[in-house]
């Protein structure tokens, strides 16, 4: 039978009633003649609640212990969903990330998958069982429990789909796909029925939250078609594959910080090395004369104050750190054919009373660094002026 991998986000399994409705969907997929592997996130806001609990104990909690704590959330979801499916008359079994054969590097809180050994999954599918996997987690080559970063359940699903040669990966959440902007910010945002891998990855990197950027990277590499759907809301979806959409979209990203280092190249390199050692991804590095700068997404750093201090001290130079920044990005394959898009976008942002701190561009994305408080206004202005 063809293998279908489904992923259900935290809002989809937020309580027992919703979890039961997910079980109904999974059973229906199985009875339609498919082998089914299901990846689940923690229920509702469980991960945020566990993070808050950790910070009550230590404002900068050790990342290894965070991984041990946070992975419990998905274990609750997987076990309950397996019980619900079995109650509905189908055989099911649940596995943690490590039991599923998800092997990662040795980073905590934002590990990357280096190999998937799905032997136990394949054995259970051969026995006719539905397999439920805890998303967001794996085991390092040192046999340490690791987590894959925010949105890591998407990565679990796509990596498992690739390892199993699945026909598709279905990513279910509380929205019916991807929009030209966040509908919570732009009320008339357009639904995008299709996107290319590259377009979707640029959107995810720039702040769109429907799909995880690393998951899209895996999908592109393995040619896994992604279907982004609403768990309980109709038939509309966004399909991510090789064909560009020819549409523009706008994304906003908040909670950024900019490090500006005045000194020789060695100062900047030491700062970047310290960021790497703290498992922080530096973005948009720029060298201007005797100064260098890069951005950090502080919302993805659980021990931000500690990490910030280690970067500043490592540089051994004059370091300025600006916080409460954000970015707004215009994304789409159509940008490469629109010579005036950059100029029009910059005029639009300035007409909205916003002075960008920095501008960057690539074939699929134009981005402007702004104050965090200006992000939503900039997104609304750009969408109104440029997105059709």
Which short descriptors sum up this protein?
alpha/beta; 20 strands; VC0802-like; eight-stranded mixed beta sheet
Description of the molecule:
- The chain has eleven helices and 20 strands.
- It has an eight-stranded mixed β-sheet with strand order 3-6-2-1-9-13-14-12, with helices on both faces. Strands 16-17-15-18-20-19 form a six-stranded antiparallel β-sheet.
- The chain is globular, with a radius of gyration of 22 Å.
- The longest helix has 25 residues, at 63-87.
- It has helices at residues 16-31, 46-57, 63-87, 119-126, 152-164, 197-205, 213-222, 265-277, 304-315, 341-351, 375-386; strands at residues 3-8, 35-40, 92-95, 102-104, 113-116, 130-134, 137-140, 145-147, 168-173, 178-179, 191-192, 194-196, 226-230, 237-241, 249-262, 283-288, 291-297, 318-331, 358-361, 365-371.
- The model has no long low-confidence stretch (mean pLDDT 94).
- By secondary structure, it is an alpha/beta fold.
- It has two domains: 3-174, Acetylglutamate kinase-like (Carbamate kinase, 3-Layer(aba) Sandwich), CATH 3.40.1160.10; 249-386, VC0802-like.
Helical proportion? 25-40%
Indicate the mean pLDDT.
94
Q: Which superfamily, in CATH terms, is the homologous superfamily of the largest domain? A: Acetylglutamate kinase-like
The count of β-strands is 20
- The CATH topology of the largest domain is what? Carbamate kinase
In whole angstroms, the N-to-C terminal distance is 42 Å
Let me know the largest β-sheet.
8 strands, mixed
Oligomer: single chain
